[in-house]
Amino acid sequence: MRISVDEEAPRGPPKRAHWEFALPKFPTSTEWLTLAALAGVYFAAAKLGLGFALVHPSASAIWPPAGIALAAFLVLGLEMWPAIFLGALLANLTTYGSLATSLCVGVGNTLEGLLGAMLVNRYAHGPKFFIRPSDIVMFTGLAVGLSTTVSPTVGLTSLALGGFAPWKDYGNIWLTWWLGDAAGDLIVAPVLVLWSTAPRPRWHRRRLLEAATLVIGLSLVALIVFDGLVPLPGDGRLPVQFLCAPFLFWAAFRLGRRAVATCVLVLAFIAIVGTLRGLGPFARGPANVPLLLLHGFLAVQAVTMLAAAAVVWQYREAQERLRRQAVKDELTGLANYRCMMSSLEAEIRRAQRAGAGRGFSTALLDMDRLKQINDHYGHLVGNRALCRVAECLRASCRVTDTAARFGGDEFAIILPETSETGARQLVERINARLMADEESPRLSVSAGVAVYPRDGATAEKLLTSADRELYRNKAAARAATAAAAPVGELV
Predict the structure, then answer these.
(1) 316 and 351, same structural domain?
(2) Is 235 within the bounds of a domain?
(3) pLDDT digits (tens, 9 = 90+) for 394-448
(4) Catalytic residue among 329, 368, 401, 409
(5) Can 409 be counted among the known catalytic residues?
(6) Contact 170, 149 (CB under 8 A)
(7) Angle (nearest 5°) at CA 304 between 302 and 305
(8) pLDDT tens per residue, range 318-338
(9) In sequence order, what DSSP letters do the residues of 423-477 get, joined into one string?
(10) pTM greater than the 0.85 cutoff
(11) Which residue range(s) make up the domain with 178?
């Protein structure tokens, strides 16, 4: 049962070692295009972010390029660093400072993304950091909190040494720079990683309607809270920003982690635009303070809701796993006894509704010499032998048939609309497949067949009839083997 639009495990290209950083081989034409496109996207995002630089031309509290760089390193690999460095260099050359300071700022931006990706790869399962709440916390602490100190430290120090930033404002500029990078990693990177690594969702009409309702509702509330769409009482003293939280919980519990990351991005965009216009609960204080307060609020919402979505996903995965274990045999992957009895009773009811002309067959199979295999080769080989028989059953049965592990070394097959002759032919095919298998030890099965309604009108009677024939066949085969064996072997 599908429980969210992104519940499947993420996919992605194979990664290099966590700490590997080396010059890649000469790029192909496709890789050149990827590098050029990434550099262009980074440059455009950097120019957009620098347009909101209020305390210093090179320090912005809105810096999506940090999230773009981190996502690129996590998804595409560390060899994407030339594109990030080039985009950062061009953005700073065309904005403020000298060639030397632009080089230092570009190096700081690149090292920041590389360090964040290396730490996330090493300690938070790389681009799968959003699966476990503990990994989300590690991602926040290492990538968002720690690695983002590199760029402001390297970049601002070089600007101050070059005379492009006053030392007396170092702390304020550094804090603004760091918060902008941290917000980019926390708000932009999860969206890019989730939408590029998770499998495409199977959107249904109801799911699309629910997602559209969620986004529209969140946008309206965000416009009211942060952009003054509807005047609110309280003169800004009421914590109206938390009116957005129910929509984020809705995304976490109903639509999954990808929806949470997207909703946080939508909320951040509306809130930033409104705050820059002097509206909303955070629009107070000096020019840069409202954005810093807003980033703190958005960071708490993003971490909390991503962690909540991960907990919900883990809970539902556990439910699904228990549901599978309730109907599947853990060793062989076939249906278990409970599932087999349910299918057998359902087939009996279906045959009864169809009338006297509709019947089916049930076959019980017993694996020969499993005890001797366990004694001679060990239980691991015995378990492998059971799995080999199960694989043979899956390969031989139709889609409509139900193959199950009855218990121990016994298997059962329910064959809808199949005569006794068809059931015995299936048993012969199974034995032929087992004999053709060159893996040691060689395997074979003994079988008994029961036909509904001739051999019984209930599940218990059918299984009892098939079991009796099975043991008659085993006894006859044992007697024939004993008669044909030399006297020395018998002794």
Answers:
(1) no
(2) yes
(3) 999 999 999 999 888 899 999 998 999 999 999 999 999 998 988 889 898 999 9
(4) 409
(5) yes
(6) no
(7) 70
(8) 888 888 878 888 889 899 988
(9) HHHHHHHHHHHHHH--SSSP--EEEEEEEETTT-SSHHHHHHHHHHHHHHHHHHH
(10) no
(11) 29-324
